[in-house]
Fold this sequence. Notes:
Elements lengths: L2 H17 L4 E14 L2 E5 L11 E2 L2 E2 L1 E13 L2 E18 L2 E21 L2 E17 L18 E11 L2 E10 L6 E4 L11 E6 L3 E13 L16
Antiparallel strand pairs: 1-5, 1-13, 2-3, 2-12, 4-6, 5-6, 6-7, 7-8, 8-9, 9-10, 10-13, 11-12
Amino acid sequence: MNKKILSLFIGLMALTVSTSQAQEFKLGLKGGINRSFGGEIDANDSNNPGRYTDETFTPDGKIGFHVGGWAQVNFGKFFVRPELVYSEVKSEYVFPGSTSLYEVTEFSVPLLVGYNVWGPLDIYAGPAYKNIIDATMEKLEPVNDPPQVVVQNTPFTAQVGAKVEFGSFGLDVRYEKSLSSADIQGVDFLNDGVIGGINRADITDGRYDQLIVSLTFKLFDTANKNKRRRRGGSCYF
């Protein structure tokens, strides 16, 4: 795990715990699916338009997944919620005669500020620190050592969403927006002899946004610390 991310999350947890003495403190796990949006590849016909394409391509977002943990401190109807999340994000480019899967693995540390609208319904927004672990695209040359795709030039994104909680379980839906600017990266694709297929190209935008849907599970809640402990366990629900 990236040491900067771990240090940041530990710092956030320490701050959360230190302020939780007079406030409600929650701790839990999360997991779910995500769908990506965005990206662009501009093909180059290499001065041979009958052989290679010069079209511009955008990808089809695919379903990825994420798992992680969260903590939350409530201040009346307001709350602060740091998280640590591992995600795999996927999209697919469809070229003439071939396809290429774009896959990114990442760790992110959202720091969210929210408000309880009514009963179980909360809304929130905030920044997220994102560390890209791996970013690959199929059929890039050299095949035995393909280049990493440039995803971001700043490690921050923005998230906004809403969640509901019923007992120990919850549903969380949010949108994540990249705060990076687009970087151009020249690449070569394995053509496989396809007439009119892709050869040389520029990845003009390797960024992506995400729609993220999570199921959450509460492990601990100080609001219930005076309730009877579950037999055989040390967590309160």
